[in-house]
Amino acid sequence: MSIAGQQMKNNVMQQIASVRKETAVMASSTDEQRNGLLESIADGLVRDSKAIFEANLQDMANATDCAASVRDRLKFGQEKFNSVIRSLSDVAALSDPIGKVLLRTELDDNLLLEKISVPIGVIGMVFEARPDALVQIVSLCIKSGNCIVLKGGKEAALTNKALFDSIQRSCEGSFAGTGWILLLQSHEDVNQMLKADGLIDLMIPRGTYAFVKYVKDNTRIPVLGHADGLCTMYIDRSGFVGKAVACALDAKTNYPAACNSIENLLVHKDISSEFLPIMAKAYSENGVSIVGDKRVCKIIGCPEATDNDWDTEYLSLKISIRIVDSLDEAIAFIAAHTSHHTDAIIAEDEQAVRKFLTLVDSADVFANCSTRFADGYRFGLGAELGVSTSRIHARGPVGIEGLMTTKYLLSGQGQIVGTYMGPNAKGFKHIDLGTEGPSRILSDSDEDSEDAQP
Amino acid sequence: MSIAGQQMKNNVMQQIASVRKETAVMASSTDEQRNGLLESIADGLVRDSKAIFEANLQDMANATDCAASVRDRLKFGQEKFNSVIRSLSDVAALSDPIGKVLLRTELDDNLLLEKISVPIGVIGMVFEARPDALVQIVSLCIKSGNCIVLKGGKEAALTNKALFDSIQRSCEGSFAGTGWILLLQSHEDVNQMLKADGLIDLMIPRGTYAFVKYVKDNTRIPVLGHADGLCTMYIDRSGFVGKAVACALDAKTNYPAACNSIENLLVHKDISSEFLPIMAKAYSENGVSIVGDKRVCKIIGCPEATDNDWDTEYLSLKISIRIVDSLDEAIAFIAAHTSHHTDAIIAEDEQAVRKFLTLVDSADVFANCSTRFADGYRFGLGAELGVSTSRIHARGPVGIEGLMTTKYLLSGQGQIVGTYMGPNAKGFKHIDLGTEGPSRILSDSDEDSEDAQP
What we know:
The structure is a homodimer of 454-residue chains. Chain A is an alpha/beta fold. Chain A is built from 16 helices and 16 strands. The longest helix of chain A has 18 residues, at 3-20. Residues 446-454 of chain A have low confidence and may be disordered. Chains A and B meet through helix 2, strand 2, helix 11, helix 15 and strand 12 of A and helix 2, strand 2, helix 11, helix 15 and strand 12 of B. Strand 15 (404-415) of chain A pairs parallel with strand 12 of chain B, so a sheet runs across the interface.
């Protein structure tokens, strides 16, 4: 590598390290300070909207060769702008995620333990060419008191820069200053981010499945995200055909490119001859092409599925249908093919429902509704950070709580462990005091602590 | 590699894969079944105690060259045996960690969302030559419905085998069978475990810091543990000298080899000439050797600390003492040197306490007590799985909740997402129903669900 290249690398790592230095400022800020900053950013964006729209027109002009779907996401007009401004107020309106008490135990007289929520520290976000995503993730990081290192899709470079410049201007006069946020620009910078373990605490990649997988495979930093969404719906022998057709149709056609759309449909043999012709007609009327196993082909005359089809995320108007002999076979099929995102059963038999919900090991397991409900907004989480198929830290749709960790506080009056050991050991009381209200250890009895700048 | 070597490798990976197949059996078991198994295991160990003690004597005989501390941990006599048997009842007495409701929201009429606790899946545990650790971790995995792959320290190989054989005999007749638990024996097996991402969900290494670091650096599987415990205590200008000396003495001498003992002591300049001579006398009487910065040396005449000393985890009766000019300097010093395990302040000034507790970014941050309280038993967590200095999944002392993840269940009556979109979209209700009681989605209204084997 050239000396200039090496220097640039060092420079990026130094920039990330300097963001890390701002974690204490963000973590110790008040909800009012953070909400005030969100408000200034909204005002600033409105003030700077002309420059932002112009930058976006330039990005669009440079992206004439891109796929229509990329251009759709890239386009940042008045409508998306208004929705971004609204989302800033929505995030400000969320309850303060910092300092929630998750456990409160009196270990002994005047020895109080509390476990409280605190920001994770530094979030690394790499996202596709969707300018609205930049504002959304910045607002969630502000609300949660986290620092952030951003890298957006190259097609949106000018729009991102315009948005970022506006945000920085709003930060300048605030409690936070501008050191807590960094926008990286080049593709090589992503690889530097991936190497920044110890400086970045959590990576959130958004984009193609190949890209998310690349991030997961190339960093020691924990990753919040999902590489694939191979979802299955199973129609039990006890399912009502009307409900089953409606749910399977919605789960495939409502938004075929979404990760919570189904790719595989399993049908119990006892209901197949009644269900399949109606389902096939509904799919055909909605432009869905079907492949099936031998028994399905016999009933509805569709092309036969290949072995690969059962593991393929079509993300389009195509579905693989298979007849199974039992609930157990359906559960075993799902275990073998699911990406652990969202799987569903349609059944009236309550025992079958319970068995399916218990034994299917996915982030979301649904009964008698569409898989498309798997979504932070529909779940009422307030804001969606992403969907996680990991079992660690967060699983399923993740709201702002995915940006939080915890910290134990213990407040005493000079107690030592020696007192609680040996032949004359004093016993602990371990009285559960419940988690109501703000931290008692951090609250100020005499004065309004929000007036005191830390 | 020889063909035989390659076959053995494949064999270990196949064995781990076959453990993974048992996750559904464990996850769907009832608390009664799991407690019954814990009871059988206790009975079985008592029945097999003679063989276990004999195996341990043989291990001890083979370990004559080992350090005294290794032999101490390896020795498994009647006293440790009794404590292991007691711990099995203690774990059985814990509340059922499976199926706790963490969120319950009515999205709309007859569309109920619940987030419930479920086992993570397969735990990989690599532990030092401490036979009691084997029984403890096995019992926590049973109680939490997790499968487990174990690898114990080689010095304890015969004792571990005897314990494992006894446990397997107790499993044979139970709901769980013997497939959910695997004991690996060779050092090479550890490297196979580290490569088993997708099969093992969480690694819990216990042992030397070098070993835990090796595990963290050589696997893509999430790791619960801590590689080091460089803890600091700060004596503020507002601290009472009596309390300060008692806490700093306990934090160093109660168990110097523990990760929650302090290695650095910071003293505010305004209190240093009063505090340091008394502290130095107390340390000297308890065999603690001191190194200090120039100002400390001037007051108590100790050797000067090297630059390295401030980052050294002595794990012995040695401490580095430094005078700071302000609370801010103390906080900055800790930020530069802490391993984010446990740090403490001794102060009467409530504002100083709050500032320290807010700005110090460690898993445990204490005021006016010894750092040695950082421990799952002392915290009243019921059972300690380990201490985590990670910010993701679990932080600080981790109880059985560290073996759990979550799953979203959604139960409807045929609802589709299309109803809630577009110009005539129905709104969501998002009514928070609270988290009291067992899952309503999984409960059986008509019959006793525990009678029905899934």
